[in-house]
Amino acid sequence: KNEVEQSPQNLTAQEGEFITINCSYSVGISALHWLQQHPGGGIVSLFMLSSGKKKHGRLIATINIQEKHSSLHITASHPRDSAVYICAVRYNTDKLIFGTGTRLQVFP
Amino acid sequence: EAGVAQSPRYKIIEKRQSVAFWCNPISGHATLYWYQQILGQGPKLLIQFQNNGVVDDSQLPKDRFSAERLKGVDSTLKIQPAKLEDSAVYLCASSLLRQGAGEQFFGPGTRLTVL
Fold first, then answer.
1. For residue A93, which phi and psi values (nearest 5 degrees)?
2. Out of A33, A86, A94, whose CB is closest to B99?
3. 8 Å CB contact between A104 and A41
4. Which of A9, A49, B4, B94 sits 20 to 30 Å CA-CA off B75?
């Protein structure tokens, strides 16, 4: 069982829709990362958070420490948002534990 | 600020051949990571360097994989000999803070296909 669970695994949406991707983890963490990976492999860090909520443009990330759960929201989705979104958590070591990712496709 | 550079971007080899990947982290970043990402999975840490010292190589298959960061700047990852199951994207990342507690910045990756 993966220590970091993401849902859904695959997600399709029409342009303009509001999108939510979920991440659950099993024990207390020091930080949680949301990453974006486009075809071709490169990864871009979207957010690093340990509590509360962060917003950047159309992206919003929230985390509930008590429930060990985080969500990534995309408002007014666009085809260029199509990518794999990966949740990764850091426990008490330097190591990041990655989820398997959510593949998002946004159609015009 | 230049990002993490990796080369080559793509490599196709036959099994039992050798291959090497290169990574140049963001200037001043002390911590460097090599990850292996098999298709459909999240990245898996292979090795972590703090300057030129190894912090964690517990998941590095040392019978065939090796990595070095001789001057604490750029790094190479080698596979010798390659197996079919080594086909993956190899990602390099770097982090500014000591002990890697900060944000990690990823390179574009090297996609390896072993035939």
1. -105, 180
2. A94
3. no
4. A49
Distance of alpha carbon B92 from alpha carbon B32, whole angstroms: 7
**Rounded to an integer, what distance in angstroms lies between the CA atom of residue A28 and that of residue A89?**
10
Decide if A91 touches B, using CB distance below 8 A: no
Establish, for the pair of chains A and B, how many residue pairs have beta carbons separated by less than 8 Å: 58
Nearest to B93 by CA among B79, B111, B75: B75
How far is CA A31 from each of CA A47, B9, B95, rounded to the nearest angstrom?
10, 30, 14
Contact across the interface for B43 and A41, Cβ inside 8 Å: no
| CA separation for the pair B95, B74 (Å, rounded) | 13
Write down the pLDDT at residue B114: 97
- Looking at beta carbons, which residues of chain A come within 8 Å of B31? 94
Asked if A41's CB is within 8 angstroms of B56's CB, the reply is: no
pLDDT per residue as tens, chain B (115 positions): 679 999 999 999 999 999 999 999 999 998 999 999 998 888 999 999 998 899 899 999 999 999 999 888 999 999 999 999 999 999 999 988 755 456 788 999 999 999 9
Q: What is the CA radius of gyration of chain B?
A: 13
Give first-to-last CA distance, chain A, whole Å.
36
* Subunit contact A94:B104, Cβ cutoff 8 A: no
Q: How is residue A43 written in tokens?
A: 């990864």
Contact A42 B41 (CB under 8 A): no
B33 Cα distance to chain centroid:
6
